[in-house]
Amino acid sequence: MHTDISIIIPVYNTEKYLRECLESVINQTFKNIEIICIDDGSTDESLKILNEYQQKDSRIIVKSQKNQKISAARNNGYKIATGKYVYFLDSDDYLYRETALETIYNSLEANQADIAVWGIIALEDGEFIGHHTMPKIRAYFNAPKEFNMISLCSSTTYRMFRKDFLDAHNITFGEQIRFAEDTIYSLECHLYNPKYVVINDTLHVYRKYHASSTANKQNRMRRLLNSIKYFESKEVYQKQPLEVKLRIVELWLGTAEYFYRVSDKTLSEHKAFTEILKFYENIYGKRELKKVDIYNKAILLAKKRYITILQKIFSSVNQDNHKVISILGVKLKFKYSKKQRPIETIGKFIKSYFLFPWYTYKTYKKIDKVTSEIKESSKPEYYSVPNTNILSSYGQLVCTTGFGHSGSGAVLDYLSEFSNVTTLGYHDTNDGSGYTKQNSDELDIFRAAGSVMDMERIFNTSNYFLDDLTIKHFLTVAEYFYRQGGIFNDYFWELTKKFVDNITDLKVKTDNGFEGLYFYQFFSAITKYANLRSPLLRDILPQDRYIYYLKNLSISEYRKIAKEYITGVLHSIESNEFLVWDQMFTTSKLESEKNIDYFGDFKQICVYRDPRDVYVTGINLKASWMPHNPIDFVKWFYHRGCPAYLEAPKHPNIMIIRFEDFVLNYEEISRQINEFVGLNEKEHMHKLEYFNPDISINNIGIYKTYEKQNEIKYIEEKLSDYCFYGEKHKSNIVKVYTT
Fold it and tell me: Who contacts 733 (Cβ-Cβ below 8 Å, separation ≥6)?
């Protein structure tokens, strides 16, 4: 029987993920496939799982071999493949959609293409980190003629090949290399001028792992060099014009530069990196390589790192009238006078002529000047966030705001359908929408009681008892979030400590403090977490506690410091062009100008919903935070639901919509949202996947089926101006404020 697709899965010790991988394949809507699983000498339960699935599905073929690494497993699987198309799937990855293979096959057939390419979702150590290839795929669709497909030549996990094409050019995986086998395979295919079809969708989930050990970091640079040499020896590559070669050199140097930038400061790493640079310089010459931007950056980085290494090896400090020189960690103490410092002369001689003959002492002095110029640019962006230019790492901060079952989640879902949007909060999902696995109260560190924005009220008083309690309360809140992990990482904690230092005038070590009853509550609560990571614990134990005194700051001065802190936290979050955060502000009081003081420029979308439906929804969901009787509900609604719509300033940063209008007049309201936020409909790649008005229409008018209609009539009487009376209803409260 003719097979349409051969799926080749090399397997080595992936019992944790293997079932998920196999299930994603056998449950595909496209059925005419063969699943070739090559066990590469697994020592866990992987082979047992493969045999189990082979008994369930006749399309699964299981072969076992001694451990020969992934390239040999793929090649051996390819030898027995019979499909028209071939797809290499790693056993710890899985297909994202059940229709993935059907979509790919139909695209290849319709375009008579040799290779199909699509988007993938990337996970690092199990955490969602983004739509890995989608930015490049969007670039392709925006300018297909100018797009250079080499930028997509990396992993084989997001491409399917026509087998006739691979056979015609005898393309196989390099079994003698241990790094970038996929990239070399993809590049070799590209150099034979295949016909591509690019699929504008995410179809695959790819797992990557953080290599943390020093040995791994050093070895990967060596393995990269071996792979580069292997690819340079390919006949098809050697026949390419110089401009193509330099484009591929840029790809390899980009990888090397990244590895070197995040590596440890060791001599062996420096040597491996400079060997890659020298290897290319010997082939192409420095004159040609200077046309490649990444080469120029790599040279500067190598020089900067060289300085750092030498400073680490030859570190010196003054102690009284002695000079202490540390050589490779061994401290040598020498007496010296201001006129004679022979040990420094010896140190310079060693630096100049024994370490790295590639440099001279004169070059070293020039490099020393370069170091200060590139020092700031080499840091992560969030280390140098300016106070007045918020969100320089992404284009726009957006907040969706509601008051509890008001429908703000619908707008959040809608915004998540855009490929250039990252949404945070509200949902716990891994559906590719960009949500983080966080709770909806993530920004409580900024807005809740005792948090950053709430703390400003203390600067209207002069009570040192309150000073101390305010700081301790804030640190309690911050430490709570720090324990949650995610975006609240070690860098967040360092920013928090710096923020406290910036607003604190004095910190006195004490054995009692002013906490009184509050301290005992605080101490009792915090000690429950004594077995967890708790950076505060050392500050609250009796032998090491502090009394905090705040600086005498004005409100505006405090807001400026707080804005710097908030900006730093936001900049530490990896995001797309638009960063959307649910419930950043409340609807009880918008305070737009105050919010701008803290967050800078932002867009806020407030969503209002018929209070009768809000009431019934709260009861149905047993929401404990809202009243379940009509009298108290009306009072609650005046506190939570009304202020944003009655008292909202006419501010260009605020948009107010009805949930009902959004559902019943989807096209018009979505157009208004796009225009207000600055979204391009071309980026709307997951339309109707997360917010579908045909489904949400069921959430309009649910109060009609509520058994206690007398309660509904009471709410309608008291809140008639806020109720929705049909599709053509226009409320004078619902506005989009523009200049």
Answer: 608, 645, 646, 656, 721, 722
Contact in structure between 656 and 735 (CB atoms under 8 Å): yes
Question: Which residue segments constitute the domains of the chain, with CATH numbers given?
Answer: 3-210 (3.90.550.10), 211-378 (no CATH), 389-440+576-739 (3.40.50.300), 451-575 (no CATH)
Taking 50 as the threshold, does the pLDDT of residue 310 lie above it? yes
CA distance 640 to 179: 57
Residue 604 pairs in a beta bridge with 399, 654
362: left (phi over 0), alpha (psi -120 to 50) or beta: alpha
Measuring CA to CA, which residue among 81, 99, 100 is closest to residue 8? 81
Q: What is the residue whose two structure tokens read 């491996």?
A: 272
pLDDT tens-digit series, residues 599-644: 888 888 888 889 999 999 989 888 888 899 999 999 888 877 666 6
- Beta carbons of 8 and 182 less than 8 angstroms apart: no
Rounded Cα distance, 61 and 23, in Å: 15
Task: Count Cβ atoms within 10 A of the Cβ of residue 537 and give its class: 0-12 exposed, 13-18 middle, 19 or more buried.
Answer: middle
DSSP reduced 3-state for 668 = helix
Q: Which residues contact 546 (CB under 8 A, 6 or more apart)?
A: 507, 508, 509, 510, 513, 539
pLDDT of 150 over the 50 cut: yes
Q: Which residues pair with 421 in a beta bridge?
A: 578
Residue 261: how many CB atoms within 10 A of its CB? Answer: 14
Handedness of CA 705, 706, 708, 714 (dihedral sign): negative
Encode 146-172: b = buried (16+ Cβ within 10 Å), e = exposed: ebebbebbbbbbbbbbbbebbeeeebe
Please choose, from the candidates 297, 237, 243, the residue with its C-alpha nearest in 3D space to the C-alpha of residue 273.
297
Tokens 């998540």 locate to: 416
